[in-house]
Amino acid sequence: MTDRASFLAGIRSTPRGVDPGLLDRQSAPDAPTQLRGGEDRSDRLQAEAEAASTVVHRVGASDVETTVVGILIGAGAQKIALTTDLEPFAGAVRAAAVTAGLDVGTYGEIAPDRAQTGALDATVTGCLAAVAATGSIVTSAAGAGRAGALIAPTHVCVVRDDQIVGGLHELFDGDVLAGAGSLFALQSGPSRSADIEKVLILGVHGPGNVHLVIVAPH
Amino acid sequence: MAVQLFPTCLGDVVAQQTVVDAERVLDALGIRHRRPIGATCCGQPAFNSGHDAPARAVAKATLKALDDGSDEPILVPSGSCTSMIRLHWRELFHGTPEAEAATRITRRVRELSSYLAEHTEALSALNPSLAVRVGYHDSCHMLRELRIKEAPRDVLRTIAGLELVELEASERCCGFGGTFSGRYPDVSVAMADAKIDDMEVARIDVLVSSDPGCLLQLAGRMSRQGTPVRAVHLATLVAEALA
Amino acid sequence: MSATRDDVGGTPLPPGWAKPAHQPDAFELTTTTFEERSAKTMARPFARAAIANATDHAAALTTAKFVGTDHDALRDQARQIRAHAIAKLPDYLDQWIDQAEENGTIVHYAADESEARRIVAQICTDEGIQRVVKSKSMASEEVSLNSALEAVGVDIYETDLGEFVVQAMGDRPGHVIAPILHRTKDEVHELFSTMAGHELPNEAEALTAFARQGLRHAFLTADAGISGGNFLIAETGEVLLVTNEGNGRLTTALPDTHIALVGIEKLVPRRSDLAVLLPLLTGHGTGQQITTYVTVASGPRREAEADGPKRMHVVLLDAGRSALLGGEFEEALHCIRCGACQNVCPVYRQVGGHAYGWVYGGPIGAVLTPLFRGQAEASELAQATTLCGACDDVCPVKIPLHDLLLGLRRRTDQDGFVPRGERLAFALWGQIWSRPLLYRASTAVARGSLRTLAHDGVVSAKAPMLRRWTAGRDLVVERLQR
């Protein structure tokens, strides 16, 4: 078996191509995945998320749990799991869901049991951040688990207005991703495929029904 | 003002009329012209097939014929030959005694329509007219190597009664590709058919291009298929409009 | 610990799924010509129409996506990122490996395709892996990974919908981004109905739902997930994957082991470089703003995380890549596998991906295949282009594909893979046309011959020397009217 040293020695011994140098991060040309000048973040987030077939709700902090439960009932979901990054809304959401007769668990407790995980109808998560210019939420292994936002056919994500960054540059340049754990992921709307004769189908392996609840600042 | 007109090898074998029509247009504009003596081929057929040595030998003959110490523009009624000389002769003659001459020639060589586009006022004053619905095919070398797109259209727009239609697939390769047309004839013909379908959708009477190679390909397939669209060089259409 | 195979969400795998079809053993590259393979696709009207429509549509979406942005400047930046990373490849590899190992990733080194197969098979044997879910990976196609794992008794489920169909049909993907571009819904319907054991509705939605149910079961019961990697991020030791279906996410979330097979050229220096590369990868690949899922994994699960693989292996693959460093064709390594060149190539539009005989089709396929597989197998592919340059204009990282193809044609000649007849013909041509008098004589002869063969200015008879031309076209000779 090739080891690190011989693998790299082989590569190191090759001639060098021309090196144009590390990219200067100061000059960022206008890209589709950046906020345009003067744009409001939450408006752009909503527009991009809706373009990717996410259902967007904009609410005040005190309406979060009723909105979430309304979504769950509308989706016909019964078995629900919440993830740790749903704080500070987790308590209120859990209480409201239980009151509505739903079966509410904690993703962290359910995850080791595949049968239970596979049977979930919906998960409700928070996120590390949302990216306005791409309509994405950013989840983390530490916060929602790797599959927390993914495993059920319906996913509801609650994001606070102050969690929204403008575009990819801000996401990757800032320290938003610190504390992500062993994995972070951008998710932008329902899962999809157009592999069969280019017909777009939503809900392939990931959720087909995705809701984003944007919580306005006080 | 005097110019030289380099016929190119296709111009000498299958597109003689194109060259004559180019001369007619220049006559009408009062521009003196002559064909360089001893010019053969620009070397592209061999160069594009990866055979540099024969390409260089042949191009050298043409280089010597063109490098006559004058400053006269050398007009070429072919986008691909123009780009071969302007973009690739420097590379081809790099490190050879002809390198300097190649640079000199590069500066003088002009694709025909781009030259005529500088004379649109004079052309219009001659009242060219032709009632015809025309689509223009952008040949690959002219479009992507020389970056010439508007010049031939500017020239066509001087012709009264001419309706210029933008073909949806005007920028798509016609499938000629020099030796490709003989190596993979079925694929080449399929690519021509895609262009012809596009022409039929646009209901044009005439297809105009600035590359004899493309015209050979498209005219050839349309002739075999009986497609009622004429395929001619820009020079031919302008000459007809001026007649 | 995986649950028992039958009591998880999703339909238990039906009998037809127990042994997915095998990958074809040999690539067609070694046994057929480009012309033969092209003819196969061109004889299928559906495939031709599907390829043309899909690629035209994708190309139009790409153009639209970048309107109003500084597209050219973005491409320049992307080119710089890739060129710098490749120029400094050993240093960035070192950095990536150090970071990855610090994260708990186990790094393996595959110098060539057979080593890659051995390493992954060994991991499966060592860890008792019996069922694998696989997220799309072109590198795994290069090394024929699936057959290596099947040989050690592993059941592999391709989870990308198109790749799942390809696997079950014993086919090969026809396009880097859209694997079953060349297949009809009817074909998928027939395949899935056979697997289900009963007739399914012949609609994309129902067919997709069938695949989803079965593959969900596979995800929930798999021992390992195998993926490729779109990028390796040197500063953090991370692997980045993009998918639209979510299979990349589930492959790296549910099974206890994650194995990623990634070409060494996929390195980028920093996370921030992705802010340039991701919009280009997605925009040029599918015309989307961003792929639905972008997954960035830095190692196995950490304490207090709810789920995730206990072990993460990354197999770094060379297999011909380092041989290109510092050479004439190094820029071929800048490729980010977006598929845009396939979408604009007028030749690909007619012949599809299988015509190229190996893993990659279109312009980048015509370049990489001879470079990775060698001239003996693939020298012909450099001829499978009209050198139109549309690929250059669309490449997000500005790879000079036209020049690389031309360079390969020269290399074919230098390496002695040009047929002797062709060399002699060009040599003779060079002797005649470099002499003005002989040029004039020969062109006069040519004109005369064509006049003889022509009727009404048109040569249509299949004259011996013109046979390849006149099979499908006339030769229209302009009649001279002075």
Task: Describe the protein.
The complex is a heterotrimer of chains A (218), B (243) and C (482). Helices cover 28% and strands 23% of the residues of chain A. Chain A has 218 residues and is α/β, with parallel strands linked by helices. Chain A has a single domain, classed as 3-Layer(aba) Sandwich (Rossmann fold). The longest helix of chain A is centred in the first third of the chain and has 11 residues, at 41-51. Chain B is an alpha/beta fold. Chain B has two domains: 2-116, no CATH class; 127-242, Rossmann fold (3-Layer(aba) Sandwich), CATH 3.40.50. Chain B has helices at residues 9-13, 16-28, 44-47, 52-66, 79-92, 99-108, 112-116, 120-125, 140-145, 150-156, 180-183, 185-202, 212-225, 234-242; strands at 2-5, 32-34, 74-76, 109-111, 129-137, 160-165, 206-209, 230-233. In chain B, the strands form two sheets. Chain B has a four-stranded parallel sheet, with helices on both faces. With 482 residues, chain C is an alpha/beta fold. Chain C has two domains: 15-50 and 71-322, Rossmann fold, CATH 3.40.50; 424-476, no CATH class. In chain C, 47% of the residues lie in helices and 11% in strands. Chain C has 21 helices and twelve strands. In chain C, helix 9 (185-196) packs across helix 10. Chains in contact: A-C, B-C. The interface between A and C is large, with 88 and 111 residues.
What can be said about the biggest beta sheet of chain A?
Answer: 6 strands, parallel
In terms of quaternary structure, what is this? heterotrimer
Please estimate the helix content of chain A.
25-40%
State the low-pLDDT regions of chain A, or none: none
How would you classify the helix and strand content of chain B by structural class? alpha/beta
Number of helices of chain A: 8
Biggest protein-protein interface? Answer: A-C, 88 and 111 residues
Written as H for each helix and E for each strand, in order along the chain, the element string of chain B is EHHEHHEHHEHHEHHEHHEHEH
CATH topology of the largest domain in chain B: Rossmann fold
Based on the structure given, which CATH architecture of the largest domain in chain B is correct? 3-Layer(aba) Sandwich
The structure class of chain A reads alpha/beta
**General form of chain B:** globular
Please give the alpha-carbon distance between the first and last residues of chain B.
23 Å
**Would you tell me the overall average pLDDT of chain B?**
97
Low-confidence stretches of chain B: none
Question: Helix count of chain B?
Answer: 14
Largest sheet of chain B: 4 strands, parallel
- Order of strands in the sheet with most strands of chain A: 1-12-7-4-2-3
